[in-house]
Design brief:
The structure holds 2 protein chains of 2 kinds. Chain A is α/β, with parallel strands linked by helices. Chain A is built from 7 helices and 15 strands. Chain B is of the alpha/beta class. Chain B has helices at residues 11-18, 59-62, 90-104, 111-118, 167-175, 185-205, 214-220, 223-230, 238-241, 287-306, 316-320, 327-332, and strands at 4-6, 23-30, 33-38, 66-72, 83-88, 120-125, 151-156, 159-164, 180-182, 249-256, 259-266. Chain B has an 8-stranded mixed beta sheet, sandwiched between helices. Classes of the chains: A alpha/beta, B alpha/beta. Chain A: It comes from candidate division WOR_3 bacterium SM23_42.
Chain lengths: 271, 334
């Protein structure tokens, strides 16, 4: 058998494009070029522009592969110019998945900020797939404004699921917003889970990660049970190019999710 | 271990035979430095095995500065020709040791590196005349090779004294056995003397040793010390691009006709944008942080990850430095 070239992106067409917010869009690919487990990521190639790392937002059990992506730079600018039916490339999966077997029988406490809800959605859907395995799933999600909330069309449905407790907040409300206002840490004042046994999973922008982690540590979660998505420059995804090194880890290979125990001694680990 | 002697008058014929089934590269002295040259029958063969490692390092053979790693949408594998690297010094082999770990030591294996490594026979040589810039001894290396290469030789008064470290090396001796005689004890004694003298010279050049807990000291260095160490660094990146153990790279895509080529380019952690992410956050936006990252990577991270320093003491970084920063001074003073 020919050895697989880990630098080669598998070509795949974009099946559907769903705008989520003014600068966040979900891209559903036509089929599933790679298998993955929740928490693993992929490199998405925009032909002749380059590639960038993204964690799928779809369930690992789905037949399609989805990414929910924020427009922030050169690669994502080019991606947002693509239309349904156009070609992208996918490499992966890379990194380690969430240790779902360790979550069994426990309350799972998920905290997301902004587009950080994308990988958490994949985790959430994986948990839903075997919801009876978990005591309860809590989600706390914060966006800047009501317009910046991703998966608006799906959230009410998720909130109705037995065994799911999902709360939202926005930093700044508007006339239509009836919900909570305040940064995501505001809805962490009350943590309804047993912090000594529950895993907590966080993904969001750097400042949100910093203050959320602080809050979760203060609340008493065990350091090895605080799972944090690390956003680092990851060029190869293979633990070879060295860009994502932080502390004693290659984030792409040993992460992209590390625990607070792993990174607490690093100065500004989320930067 | 059985050692073999190649008499000096047979060296050229041996090289000629080897080069019949692959390209052969060896060090040649030019303007006071040795450089890697390709063996060519039309050119006079004037190797130099006495001087220290070549000005260029051998990483180019395995991990070139610009490399096509994939083609899109249809990929294509370009075969590599067999090659012999003749006269490689131990400091450059430390680089191969690091690369072997990074590129093939864990999954997924880098197929290009593996193909080049598999197709390259490394014939190393002792380094009998260390120079002021050399400090392999401070990093646990000797100025001679005891493994990793396929064959090693020492230039002794009676010729070239060879040892084989791999099956490939043994096969070369076997295939060319008419050139070799079994080494005598006298030749081995000569080799021991040459090695002993080289070590003594290195110990004189580097009379101070690095502290045993170097890794921890690098990890714990405070901001003031880092700023002092950074000194006059002008970010020319010579220390990184010239380094035989640096392995940072960046993937970049280019259009070639209708297709796209994915190019792997050497990168360097001193570039301001090296660690910057798509959203703009940069964990090492300041030069002090980037400067120290090199030390953390080589002496703390790699030591924790692979139990070895990603530094060979070859001295290219201090010779190439525009600001004349000597890495040894920084490490001695930690």
């Amino acid at each position: 058998m020919e050895p697989i070239n880990p630098y080669y992106p598998i070509p795949v067409k974009i099946k559907k494009i769903i705008p989520e917010t003014p600068n966040i869009t979900t891209f559903i690919l036509d089929g599933k070029p790679i298998d993955f487990e929740a928490g693993q990521f992929a490199e998405l190639t925009i032909p002749s522009v380059g590639e960038a790392p993204f964690t799928p937002s779809s369930s690992p059990y789905d037949d399609d592969l989805e990414f929910t992506i924020m427009k922030v730079g050169r690669v994502t600018d080019a991606l947002f110019d693509l239309k349904e039916g156009e070609l992208v490339g996918v490499r992966g999966p890379f990194g380690k998945p969430y240790p779902l077997k360790d979550f069994k029988g426990k309350e799972v406490f998920i905290v997301g900020g902004g587009v950080g809800f994308a990988p958490l959605r994949s985790l959430f859907l994986a948990l839903l797939h075997k919801i009876k395995d978990y005591k309860k799933i809590y989600i706390r999600y914060g966006a800047r404004t009501p317009k910046d909330i991703v998966y608006k069309h799906l959230i009410p449905e998720w909130q109705r699921i037995d065994g799911v407790d999902l709360l939202l907040t926005v930093d700044v409300g508007d006339a239509s917003w009836q919900g909570r206002v305040g940064v995501v840490t505001v809805i962490l004042d009350e943590i309804p889970v047993d912090v000594k046994t529950s895993p907590t999973i966080v993904c969001g922008p750097p400042l949100m990660m910093k203050f959320t982690t602080q809050k979760l540590v203060e609340a008493g979660f065990r350091h090895e049970s605080i799972y944090l998505s690390m956003e680092k420059n990851m060029s190869c995804g293979l633990g070879k190019c060295n860009h994502c090194r932080v502390g004693k880890f290659y984030v792409c290979k040993d992460g992209p999710v590390l625990t607070w125990k792993d990174i607490k001694d690093i100065e500004e680990p989320f930067l | 271990m059985k050692s073999y002697l190649l008499s000096p008058d047979k060296l050229l014929d041996f090289v000629k035979e080897l080069s019949s089934d692959g390209s052969l590269y060896y060090p040649e002295l030019e303007n006071g430095k040795t450089h890697i040259v390709g063996y060519d029958v039309s050119r006079e063969f004037k190797p130099n095995f006495e001087r220290i490692r070549t000005a260029e390092n051998i990483k180019h053979f395995f991990f070139p500065s610009r490399d096509t790693v994939a083609r899109f949408p249809k990929d294509e594998v370009i075969p590599v020709r067999k090659r012999y690297l003749f006269g490689v010094k131990n400091c450059d082999l430390r680089g191969i040791d690091v690369y072997d770990r990074v590129f093939v030591g864990w999954e997924p294996v880098d197929p290009l590196y593996k193909e080049r490594r598999d197709k390259t026979i490394i014939i190393s040589a002792d380094c009998p005349e260390p120079e002021d810039s050399c400090f392999c001894n401070l990093l646990g290396l000797n100025p001679y090779v005891e493994g990793l290469s396929d064959l090693n030789f020492t230039v002794v008064p009676n010729g070239l004294l060879f040892d084989a470290f791999t099956k490939k090396g043994e096969a070369i001796i076997e295939a060319h056995k008419d050139f070799f005689t079994e080494a005598k004890e006298e030749d081995k004694k000569q080799r021991a003397m040459i090695r002993d003298q080289a070590i003594k010279k290195l110990n004189t050049i580097n009379s101070r040793v690095f502290k045993k807990d170097l890794s921890a000291r690098v990890g714990a260095a405070d901001k003031e010390r880092i700023r002092d160490a950074r000194d006059e660094c002008v970010e020319c990146h010579a220390c990184l691009h010239g380094c035989p153990t640096c392995y940072c790279f960046l993937l970049s895509d280019y259009k070639k006709g209708k297709d796209i080529e994915r190019i792997r380019l050497w990168d360097a952690c001193y570039y301001a944008a090296y660690a910057r992410v798509g959203g703009g956050a940069n964990p090492r936006s300041r030069l002090d942080e980037r400067f120290w990252n090199r030390f953390q990577c080589k002496f703390d991270f790699f030591f924790k990850y692979e139990n070895m320093y990603a530094c060979s003491g070859c001295g290219r970084c201090l010779l190439g430095c525009s600001a004349k920063i000597d890495i040894r001074e920084i490490l001695w003073n930690l």
